[in-house]
Design brief:
- The complex is a heterodimer of chains A (421) and B (272).
- Helix content of chain A is 58%, strand content 12%.
- Chain A is an alpha/beta fold.
- In chain A, the strands form two sheets. In chain A, strands 7-6-5-8-9-10 form a six-stranded parallel β-sheet.
- Chain B has helices spanning 2-26, 29-57, 65-87, 90-109, 124-159, 164-168, 172-204, 213-235, 240-258.
- In chain B, helix 7 (172-204) packs antiparallel against helix 8.
- Chain B has two domains: 1-117; 122-272, no CATH class.
- By secondary structure, chain B is an all-alpha fold.
- Chain B contains nine helices and no strands.
- The chains are: A alpha/beta (421), B mainly alpha (272).
- At the A-B interface, helix 8 and helix 13 of A face helix 5 and helix 7 of B.
């Protein structure tokens, strides 16, 4: 296993550099072919997203591999190496494994734990498969990376909390109502923001959408988008008590809803809770309304606070995710080394078993007729001889395979016993 | 045998208690499987322990302090398991199991009196009176826990600064629903328990209604829960106020259960 990875990401390079190195999707097969034909990469994969560009390869020799991939990136995009040097990072061997696992598990993402990256890595893998540049090594590495990502997702809560305004609103709604099925949303003011928030709530299962706007026509238009109902400007307070969730973003300079409205609403609703999201600036809803029991008011800053708290939560979770990655890296290395050594051990055994059988046949001819007991004794004698002779070399091969830095010793042993790679 | 099984029960409940807390702290759902295994096997041991005690004593083991504590812990675990089957709330265990642990520990420390059971207590009505009352109390305890979870989560949502509890506790609607359902199960059970108690007293003591403190407090409890359920159904009493009332109701249950064990009253038979 000789793995190399060269690339840059949002952590090392600004957007104007990242966009220059982007590999457009149609050019990927061609680029992968180039890596194999001109840069002698046995296997390769290119991951190119808006936040990172990375070339992963399995090569004959890793230090040389790093330089070759750097050359490839520079010449493919026709940018001199000097300008890129400061932005590029490179990994070899075990560090490649760790980096790939972390990227797939979204631990290296701009928004920690965001889910898109795994899909992008999977697409990159499929593209490389179609281009024919995936062999046994990258196949094992990438499949393990997908498994690690899944483990991180299911064993930590790194991706469970919302980090965008509209998702934070949905998350809060679920903390109040649990299930949004059967709930009614009222949109006050037909702006872009309220449309977006209503869309997310609709995706989360809200059953009914009411739209109210100062100009009735606009309300009707928006209501059509959500297959909802438009409310006439003068009828707002006749319908407001039906709303479980109110999203407000009107251009009104004064409060539309005050505390007294809230109290009346809750009374009519027989204390069923109301979640009010006020994303208007200046605000539409008197903050005092939050003091009414069973009304929960969040303005745009409150939602941002929730997101900040969620991000801190994700960072805490990232630590247990890093532990999972560490475990998996060790597991992967142990297994890949065992895979490296097994063919050698098998060949060694077969080689000596062949010699033993040959000598047995020759000896039998010379000794003439043997009783079955004598035959068995001879068989066990030769077998134990071979086993004793091979015992030390085989345990040494196994031991060496568990350590990474003994490639040379391994090669020596193989040479002494006349084994092929 | 029943004592031995009860020792095993407390060991298994400790595992359940510990892993419940670990689940909530680390938010690793895999840990809760261990907790649930501890609770589940503990519950089975507990049931066996009660059965053995019944066989050993020759009557249901609910008529002395040791038996009462053990049986109360048992019905609370039963209430928890039923709630868990319905709502899958890991966080509920953190509220329920400290009390279960204390009760089971208490039962382990107090031994059963060797004296044979009083003739007075050998009555079908008595054997209905105790389990139904205890089951009712267990349901009220779940309602109490749900009320506390509601108040904490509501505070998190009103303060708008999500902290540890925001992520770990269920939604308000679930807390409210669990509280309400527990009450609607607990209240009929308590009612049956009180009626059975009165019928038993009528036969055994020739008076249906002795005004000992325990009976007075039980009636107060019954009235509070009756009011709560009434307003819940008729005027939509829910949320914060309902949660508070569930909590107050259970505090009075505790007073009834623990605080009124005076000599000279009808209920002091039990502890002699």
């Amino acid at each position: 296993m000789n793995l190399v990875l060269v690339g840059l990401s949002h952590k090392t390079a600004p957007i104007n550099i990242r966009e220059k190195l982007h590999f457009p999707e149609p050019q990927l097969p061609e680029a992968l072919q180039l890596l194999r034909s001109q840069y002698e990469m046995r296997e390769s994969l290119i991951l190119s997203t808006c936040n990172r560009v990375e070339v992963l390869a399995q090569t004959a020799d890793s230090p040389a591999g790093v330089r070759q991939i750097q050359d490839f990136i520079c010449s493919f995009h026709q940018i001199p190496y000097n300008t890129l040097q400061q932005y590029l990072y490179d990994f070899t061997q075990i560090d490649v494994v760790r980096h790939v696992f972390r990227v797939a598990a979204s631990l290296d993402s701009m928004v920690l734990g965001e889910p898109q990256i795994l899909g992008q890595v999977k697409t990159a893998f499929t593209t490389a498969q179609h281009a024919g540049t995936i062999g046994a090594t990258l196949n094992q590495l990438m499949n393990r990376a997908f498994f690690v990502a899944k483990r991180v997702r299911s064993e930590t809560t790194i991706a469970s909390s919302a980090v965008s305004i509209s998702y934070a609103a949905v998350e809060l709604a679920k903390k109040i109502f649990n299930d949004l099925k059967g709930k009614t949303v009222l949109i006050l003011g037909a702006g872009k923001m309220s449309e977006l928030a209503a869309k997310h709530l609709g995706g989360a299962g809200v059953s009914k959408v009411l739209v109210w706007n100062r100009t009735y026509q606009r309300a009707v238009e928006l209501a059509q988008i959500f297959r909802g109902e438009a409310i006439r400007p003068e009828d707002l307070f006749r319908h407001i008590e039906h709303a479980d969730i109110i999203i407000s973003s009107t251009g009104s300079p004064t409060f539309i809803l005050n505390k007294a409205d809230g109290e009346r609403m809750i009374h009519l609703r027989k204390n069923r809770p109301v979640f009010i999201i006020d994303i208007a600036v200046p605000r539409d809803v008197d903050p005092e309304i939050n003091k009414v029991s069973n009304i929960f008011l969040y303005d745009i800053d409150d939602l941002r606070n929730v997101i900040d708290a969620n991000l801190r939560q994700r960072q805490r979770e990232a630590q247990s995710a890093e532990e999972i990655v560490q475990q998996e890296v060790e597991f992967f290395l142990e297994h890949s080394r065992a895979r490296d050594a097994t063919p050698a051990i098998v060949t060694l055994r077969e080689h000596w078993e062949g010699i033993r059988k040959e000598e047995m046949a020759r000896g039998r001819k010379r000794l003439g007729h043997l009783t079955s007991e004598q035959e068995a004794a001879l068989e066990s004698l030769t077998q134990s001889l071979v086993n004793k002779m091979l015992h030390h070399p085989i345990s040494e091969l196994k031991r060496l395979s568990r350590q990474s830095s003994n490639q040379e010793d391994m090669a020596t042993i193989k040479r002494i016993f006349g084994l092929k790679d | 045998m029943s004592t031995l099984l009860l020792r095993l029960t407390i060991a298994l409940y400790s595992i359940g208690l510990l892993h419940s807390f670990l689940t909530i702290i680390t938010r690793k759902k895999t840990l809760f499987r261990v907790a649930l295994a501890g609770i589940g096997f503990g519950f089975i041991c507990h049931a066996l322990s009660l059965i053995f005690a019944w066989v050993e004593l020759g009557h249901p083991p609910i008529t002395d302090n040791h038996g009462a504590l053990s049986f109360f812990a048992f019905v609370i675990v039963l209430a928890f398991l039923i709630s868990y089957a319905r709502y899958r709330l890991e966080s509920l265990s953190v509220f329920v199991f400290p009390l279960v642990f204390i009760l089971t520990l208490g039962a382990n420390l107090i031994s059963s009196p060797a004296a044979p059971q009083k003739e007075l207590l050998r009555s079908l009505w008595f054997y209905i009176h105790i389990p139904t009352t205890f089951l009712g109390y267990a349901a009220f305890f779940v309602a109490f826990s749900a009320g506390i979870m509601y108040l904490i989560q509501e505070r998190e949502l009103k303060r708008k600064r999500p902290q540890a509890f925001y992520y770990r506790l269920p939604s308000l609607e679930i807390c409210d629903d669990l509280g309400y359902r527990s009450l609607s199960v607990g209240f009929p059970l308590l009612t049956v328990g009180i009626v059975a108690g009165a019928l038993w007293a009528n036969r055994a003591l020739d008076q249906p209604w002795g005004w000992d403190p325990k009976i007075i407090w039980s009636l107060i409890t019954w009235l509070i829960y009756a009011v709560l359920i009434h307003f819940r159904l008729s005027a939509g009493l829910r949320g914060r106020r309902a949660a508070l009332m569930s909590i107050i109701g259970f505090v009075i249950v505790l007073v009834t259960f623990v605080g009124t064990r005076q000599q000279g009253s009808a209920h002091s038979f039990i502890q002699q």
